[in-house]
UniProtKB/TrEMBL annotation:
Compartmental location: Cell membrane
Ranges annotated as spanning the membrane: 45-69, 75-102, 123-141, 192-210, 222-241, 272-296, 308-327, 348-369, 381-403, 415-435, 441-460
Organism: Paraburkholderia tuberum
Membrane topology category: Multi-pass membrane protein
Domain of life per record: Bacteria
Name of the protein in its database record: Membrane protein involved in the export of O-antigen and teichoic acid
């Protein structure tokens, strides 16, 4: 039975259609499309909620079950390796993100052959990129001195860290083309299906984490039990695309028409590549900076504080993520009223929920940490305050970034990311060296984000960006 055709998906969709039937979105011919877009977004958000809940359960168990037997140093190493998923995401060269708008345009045109060509060429290109990245990364791991880089005290732990990194890199390179598959579903405005696949992966990770705890499994098994399950269950989506003949490999796939779209994909991918590089330099390398300056043990405190507020960033991404394909579809049709209304609602809801949730988590943090980590790790309150504030800033920034992606407005993002990276990296190093406490790496990200976002989006590019919603400035 197809993933989206069972009772548990159809019943909520019927309810959502009733809820949206009386809403005054759209005018004339666009009215039905607007309601249908919101139903798709709500369906994606509902499935994402299940996936996020399962993912949060995995995060909780990955700390409470593994920290006691791993110890602070090995746990910090695991968190550092896990952070590589964000740092290395740049290796897809931006092709996965570039697929979203092209797939949305092809779907809007109703040209099935064009849709199949774009999706298949994009995923096959990512297969080649993944294979090349794997060869380079495995060779680089063999040359690095992990014990010196991460300040590891034991040779046995160093060996375990190397093995875990090789396992992670293998999974990551397999995931590069699979990330393109997920983005195809975003462009089709069917983001709920990747969320369902992710939820299945989280579901199987839960008993595997319990077994790892029971048998004191080494770090490579923990990587397989968490990240490995997410990679494995994404294969369900490949089967879905093949069944619908959207992804179809044949000899003539590179000989047909549509090379103009392929060139556009490469240009857009280049922009996304630079954006990803900037974000990695600015924020995703935090564990490596902290580990190199303060030691691997401080990475554990940073990881626990960030994961405590992860429900905010994941939850807000759950609400705003499905809007990317909707924005792109409305942009292709020139339906600015939908874009304007959706942007206002998205930013207002995201900001309000993020601030409220962050305050509640911060107030309950002593009890949450006691239940979660016991007496195995102490997290300073200033670090918790910084992590809560960063979660709000990131949630608001992500909602606006989804809008910009749907409008194909990548140049303002590029400028903002360059400013963010130029400010945050030296600021983190200077403040960590001066004060010697881990919370300053988080405050540096907050300061740099505010400077970059306000300077570019509100100062330099305000008119250009708001032109997509026209009807005068947003109020």
């Amino acid at each position: 039975m197809p993933l989206a055709d069972n009772f548990f998906v159809r019943a909520p969709v019927s309810i959502l259609r009733l809820c949206f039937r009386r809403l005054p979105f759209g005018i004339g011919a666009s009215e039905g499309r607007d309601r249908d877009r919101y139903v798709r977004a709500a369906r994606s958000a509902a499935c994402n909620a299940v996936s996020a809940a399962m993912g949060f359960a995995v995060v909780l168990l990955s700390v409470s079950l593994t920290l006691p037997y791993l110890g602070q140093e090995r746990f910090g190493i695991w968190m550092t390796i896990s952070s590589l998923a964000v740092m290395l995401s740049v290796l897809d060269l931006g092709v996965a993100n570039g697929l979203v708008n092209l797939v949305a345009d092809a779907k809007t045109s109703g040209d099935q052959e064009k849709l199949q060509t774009i999706a298949t060429r994009g995923v096959l290109l990512l297969v080649v990129i993944g294979a090349a990245a794997g060869a380079v990364l495995v060779g680089a791991v063999r040359l690095l001195d992990f014990q010196r880089l991460l300040k590891i005290e034991s040779a046995d732990v160093t060996r375990e860290a190397v093995e875990s990194t090789v396992v992670f890199i293998t999974l990551f390179c397999v995931n590069i083309p699979l990330s393109g598959v997920r983005k195809v579903f975003y462009g089709l405005q069917r983001a709920w299906e990747p969320h369902i696949a992710a939820a299945i992966g989280y579901f199987f990770s839960l008993p595997l984490l319990y077994l790892c705890n029971r048998y004191r499994a080494p770090l490579p098994y923990l990587v397989l039990s968490t990240y490995g399950m997410q990679v494995g269950t994404t294969l369900i989506l490949v089967w879905r695309l093949r069944r619908e003949r959207i992804f179809r490999v044949h000899r003539g796939i590179w000989l047909g028409t549509g090379w103009q779209d392929s060139r556009l994909l490469l240009r857009t991918s280049g922009m996304f590549l630079i954006l990803q590089l900037g974000m990695i330099c600015g924020s995703a390398c935090d564990p490596l900076i902290v580990s190199n300056i303060l030691g691997a043990k401080e990475v554990a405190r940073l990881a626990v504080a960030q994961r405590l507020f992860q429900a905010i960033t994941v939850g807000m991404a759950m609400l705003s993520g499905p809007l990317w394909g909707l924005y792109a579809d409305a942009h292709s049709r020139g339906e600015k009223m939908f874009i304007r209304h959706t942007l206002k609602v998205s930013m207002g809801v995201t900001g309000g929920i993020a601030v409220l949730t962050s305050a509640l988590i911060l107030a309950a943090s002593p009890w949450l940490l006691k239940v979660w980590t016991g007496n195995h790790l102490t997290v300073p309150f200033p670090l918790l305050c910084a992590a809560g504030m960063l979660a709000v800033v990131e949630a608001m920034g992500n909602a606006f970034t989804i809008f910009l992606n749907g409008m194909s407005e990548l140049r303002p993002q590029l400028l903002a990311v360059l400013i963010f990276s130029a400010v945050s990296i030296p600021l983190k190093v200077c403040l960590l060296l001066k004060f010697g406490t881990v919370e300053w790496v988080v405050w540096s990200s907050i300061i740099a984000s505010i400077i970059a976002d306000y300077g570019v989006y509100i100062g330099l590019c305000r008119k250009q960006i708001l032109a997509h919603a026209s009807l005068g400035p947003l109020s």
